[in-house]
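Hi team,

Below is the intake form for ABC-type sugar transport system substrate-binding protein from Labrys wisconsinensis. Please confirm the fields before the structure is written into the shared record.

FORM ID: S-0412
PROTEIN: ABC-type sugar transport system substrate-binding protein
ORGANISM: Labrys wisconsinensis
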Amino acid sequence: MSLDRRQFSLSLFAAAAAGALPGAARAEGEKTIALMFDAFDSDFWITGNTILKAKAKANGWTTLESISNRDQNKQNDQVKAMVERKVDGIIFIPTDNNAAIPAIRTANAANVPIVFFNRPPAPNDNKYIAIQADNRKIMQITVQALVDIAKKQGGKYKACVLMGDLGDNNAVQRRDGALDILDQNKDLVEVVARVATEWNTDKAFAGLTNALQANPDINLLVSPSDSQDAVIEQVLKTAGKWHKTGEEGHVLFSGFDGDQNGYRLLSTGYMDVNGVQNLFYEVDLAYGAFKDIWAGKQPAQMLIDPGFAISQATLEAKREDMWGYHVWKEKNP
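The structure came back. Fields below:
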């Protein structure tokens, strides 16, 4: 049984976990998958875990889980324990992409396929599969959609670009994707502030506050993550700049991730565009890689999630593919 976006819900997962998923296929045989997370500190990872479990169950597989609490040495030891339990595949979300390489060697020695989910390891010569969102491309299409709205509205724009932790390649790619498009549209948009948030909400709050004090005419904002939506809302409210699309003083605003906050702000008219990492597709890529390997095929080492941009105009048509919509729906029945 395949599990599509329209069928997905946290309630359905609960039924699946209880063994009540109707018609669950067994054609793939009894397989056991290790789901190895470093932390559940965001809805992205919590929802990812939910989808992984639901789709494993739909395939007739069982799952084992571990959380390392951001301790890479502990997680590497957990891989050894999973191998001793004779799992058939490992989904791996590491804390440190360099220090995780011994875990790959452990899996390789036991001939157990290991898939790095949304966080590739550092380059190495061992055997692994990595699932990666194309962060730069997703940010490009997101900011391009925002610029297209600006062009349609007319006028000139002064932009603030928030950035994540630039020690994280995902953050670098998102920053570069935004600047790719903004640099092509300098006649329309002037970037007057760049705020290094380091994925830290306190730094995002202070940096955006300072940027608005220095440039009170900022009217376009690019965020690298929906995890900072609440801070952005708080700062814009304090600055008297929190207005819906169509209202005087509205700040054109793009988010990234596709979480429930992004959906809420799009649906209520405060956010204009959101770049979505397609969690459903990433899980399909990961499990498809396992099936290929078990069948004796060798998938590409890097499998790319192209993601997509969603706007107020496309929200109804695309929201079923936006993982955060399902989280929002579950919390707002």
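SUMMARY LINE: Residues 16-28 have pLDDT under 50 and may be disordered.

Thanks, M.
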